[in-house]
Amino acid sequence: MIIHELMASECGEILRRMSFGRLACARFNQPYIVPIFFYFDADANRLYSFSTVGRKIEWMRENPKVCVEVEEIADQFHWTTIVITGRYLEVSNAAEAQAARQRAQELFQRRTQWWLPGGANLASGAEHEEPVIYSILIDAMSGRRAARPV
Ligand SMILES: Cc1cc2nc3c(=O)[nH]c(=O)nc-3n(C[C@H](O)[C@H](O)[C@H](O)COP(=O)(O)OP(=O)(O)OC[C@H]3O[C@@H](n4cnc5c(N)ncnc54)[C@H](O)[C@@H]3O)c2cc1C
Fold first, then answer.
1. How far apart are CA 4 and CA 42, in angstroms?
2. Other CB atoms within 10 Å distance of the CB of residue 15
3. Alpha helices (runs of H) in 1-150, residue ranges in sequence order
4. Is any ligand 1 atom within 6 A of the Cβ of residue 125?
5. What is the pTM of this model?
């Protein structure tokens, strides 16, 4: 099996067609990782996502350094993975964030019911009330692809 390193342009192509990844954040030396949907904005070099306030948002507000992993795995010999390190930036309701909010909304509309599952309530009855639009500004990105020689 040979593992190829991807160029930034190849990583970008994958991020454009993918919308599922794993978001890792950390607080007090404790990592925390959850699956999320994201939307890649190539021009702004960032991922957008939607959530309600819960543990990950609270942690990212305290420590904005995050990691996102995106993967396409066919089997152990054929896979592509991307690892991004970046910074959490909340898109506020302020007038100066209008352009970012609008861009996020445009990207979100590409998926029906884009607010789910980020905006879903828990069966236990615990409600998450505060919706949050945020972006991950990409600081560094690497991609690897495995292929078995035929
Ligand atoms: C395919 C997929 C796509 C998703 N897309 C999004 C998205 O775009 N935006 C979004 O906000 N959420 C999304 N989710 C849900 C997300 O993974 C989290 O479950 C959710 O956001 C709650 O995270 P929180 O940190 O606010 O947890 P809280 O509601 O604050 O709860 C924290 C507690 O719940 C546990 N917990 C939280 N999430 C999970 C989980 N998934 N599995 C097991 N235990 C968990 C934690 O360990 C912790 O104990 C998606 C889930 C899946 C499977």
1. 22
2. 23
3. 8-17, 55-62, 98-108
4. no
5. 0.94
* Cβ(135) – ligand 1 distance below 6 Å: no
The two three-digit tokens of residue 28, written as one number:
């007090």
The pLDDT tens digits for 83-100 are 999 999 999 888 888 999
Element spanning 114, H or E:
none
Here the tokens at position 20 are 């599922």
Q: In which band, very low, low, confident or very high, does the pLDDT at 66 lie, cut at 50, 70 and 90? A: very high
Could you write out the DSSP letters of every residue in 16-36? HH--EEEEEEEETTEEEEEEE
50 Cα–ligand 1 center, Å: 12
Write the residue with the smallest CA distance to atom 18 of ligand 1.
34
Residue 7 near residue 24 (C-beta atoms within 8 A) = no
21 in ligand 1 pocket by Cβ < 6 Å? no
Rounded CA-CA distance 145/8 in Å is 13
How many whole angstroms from 144 Cα to the centroid of ligand 1? 27
